[in-house]
Amino acid sequence: MPPAALPSAAEADAEAEKILVHSPVLDRLEEFFSDPSVTSAINDFCCAHASVTPLAEGAEHPLEYHTAFLEYAKLIEEQVAAFMAEHGFSEEDIVIAALHAPPGVHTCIDYLLASTEYTAFLQLMGQFNSLADAVDDTNDYKDS
After folding, report:
1. Could you tell me which of 91, 92, 95, 71 has the C-alpha nearest to residue 83?
2. Where in the numbering of this chain does the BART domain appear (predicted)?
3. What value does the mean pLDDT take over residues 96-108?
């Protein structure tokens, strides 16, 4: 079997164009979600719902988890609406940019995804709780 042909430079460039690391929408959205007022709102939410953690596969989730998910979705929806009003981007602009963003690069995409997918929300809450635990452990160490 002959080796697979390597893509031409033009094909490689075309493929790279599909993945947006930087775009006006993503850059502004990332900046917006990094603003202290937004990060504080998300942090406050996570602190208020710290009991929401990922459960073992197949475990029954308390109803409060879904209620918290809906509250988080509303919080992010309000933040995105403020972003769109401030910067003049549409939902379609955001969706298109998000679809072409590489995974794990933009925190704002993680926030958006967690507002639309329950499992992503649980993962976000788990990450927040792990970070909060690490900070607590560090503070305990400093106090001793």
Report:
1. 91
2. 24-129
3. 87
What tokens appear for 24 in the block?
């006006």
Predicted local confidence at residue 23, as pLDDT = 84
- Which residue shows structure tokens 């704002």? 108
Q: What is the gyration radius of the CA atoms in the chain, in angstroms?
A: 19
Q: Read off the pLDDT of each residue in 80-97 and give the average, rounded to a whole number.
A: 94
Where exactly are the structural domains of the chain?
23-50+62-143
Whether pLDDT at 1 is above 90:
no
Residue keyed to tokens 């719902």: 49
User: What is the rounded distance in angstroms from the CA atom of residue 33 to the CA atom of residue 79?
Assistant: 8
- Do residues 42 and 107 make contact, with C-beta atoms less than 8 angstroms apart? no
